[in-house]
Amino acid sequence: MTASFFDVVCLAAMRNYEHIQQILPIIVFFAAYKLYHELCKTNELSIMRIMGVSTFNVALPSISISLIFAVLCLFILNPIGSYMMIQYEASTHIKFRSYANYINYSNNGIWLQDKTPHSGQIDKVLHASKMDSLRESLIDVTVFIMDNKWTVKELILADSATFNENQIILHNAKIIGDINITAKKQLDFSTNITFAQMQDSILPPYVVPFIKLPSFILDAQNAGFDVLKHIVYFARLLFLPFSFAAMVFTALMFIDVTPRKVHNIYYIAYPAIFAIILHFLNDIVIILGTNGALNPFFAAILPSLLCLSMCAVYRYT
């Protein structure tokens, strides 16, 4: 199924929140840098230093505003952005796919609705208590065979299920019909669901609001999904106030480092280069945290710690 140009524009607008989320610390950095640059031009910053005002007290008003902004981002901007991303995921699902296998999970396990591509009729609903990623199997499986009126024709109980070339193989299955119960050591039937689709079916972290993210991570983890990416994302949101404060201190340091008598282009070039480096550093530590090379919470706070370390080295040397 193809989408019109208007559909593409709408999808791009809904996806903007993901990019805004990534550059929020850089926005705070440039805002603080602009403020201290203006104070430096009018010698107000120098006067405060002469009067004995400490660096922390100089930065305190900006830090307070940045913390308020962080709270607004977490509890107002984040839910709005998450809703837009949900609409984006739903729209891409409708616009660019002719059919789908619906996969859902909650605190009671994983649910799959197997939808046939030709008729669009859901003929099987599968429930599993959890997923075993190492063995690529499902544990404690129940399959509901449905007719076109959503009536259960058969109920199949199995200890586990594996996937093999458009087939689900049930192990130690019991088929419960209207009259009798039949036991089979192995039972297979065709499906449009693959194990890779199941692993990829977990919602992206930016779709889930910050408040609901801990319970979402817990449910997905209990169901057997890999949630390292979601933990890193949650940690980045959790440390967002600290990140904003670090950006304020870094902006103040850049004003001190930049010579007074230089062309205005340097006042743009220095912070721009820093912003580019910080953006790539964020990407690197996110990859390391997602792959398990770094602790997710340490990976989330590492760029801010490096910025504060850089400020401390400058302050005391």
Structure description:
- This protein is an alpha+beta fold and 317 residues long.
- The chain has 2 domains: 203 residues, no CATH class; 91 residues.
- Helix content is 56%, strand content 21%.
- It contains 9 helices and 7 strands, in the order αααβββββββαααααα.
- Strands 1-2-3-4-5-6-7 form a 7-stranded antiparallel beta sheet, covered by helices on one side.
- Helix 3 crosses helix 7.
- The protein is elongated and about 90 Å long.
- About 3% of the residues have low confidence.
Characterize the main sheet.
7 strands, antiparallel
**Number of domains in the coordinates?**
2
* Low-confidence region ranges: 94-101
Structural class: alpha+beta
Quaternary structure of the protein: single chain
Q: How many β-strands, per DSSP?
A: 7
Globally, the shape reads elongated
Number of helical segments with 4 or more residues? 9
Topology pattern, helix = H, strand = E: HHHEEEEEEEHHHHHH
First-last Cα distance? 62 Å
Radius of gyration: 27 Å
| Helix share bin | 55-70%
Biggest sheet: strands side by side, in what order?
A: 1-2-3-4-5-6-7
Mean pLDDT across residues = 81
What percentage of amino acids are in beta strands? 15-25%
Pick out its properties.
single chain, alpha+beta, 2 domains, seven-stranded antiparallel β-sheet, 9 helices, 56% helix, elongated
Break the fold down into its secondary structure elements and pairings.
Layout: H1 5-41, H2 44-50, H3 55-96, E1 102-106, E2 109-115, E3 122-132, E4 137-146, E5 152-163, E6 167-176, E7 181-190, H4 195-200, H5 213-222, H6 228-238, H7 240-257, H8 264-290, H9 296-315
Antiparallel strand pairs: 1-2, 2-3, 3-4, 4-5, 5-6, 6-7
Helix pairs in contact: 1-3, 1-7, 1-8, 3-7, 6-9, 7-9, 8-9
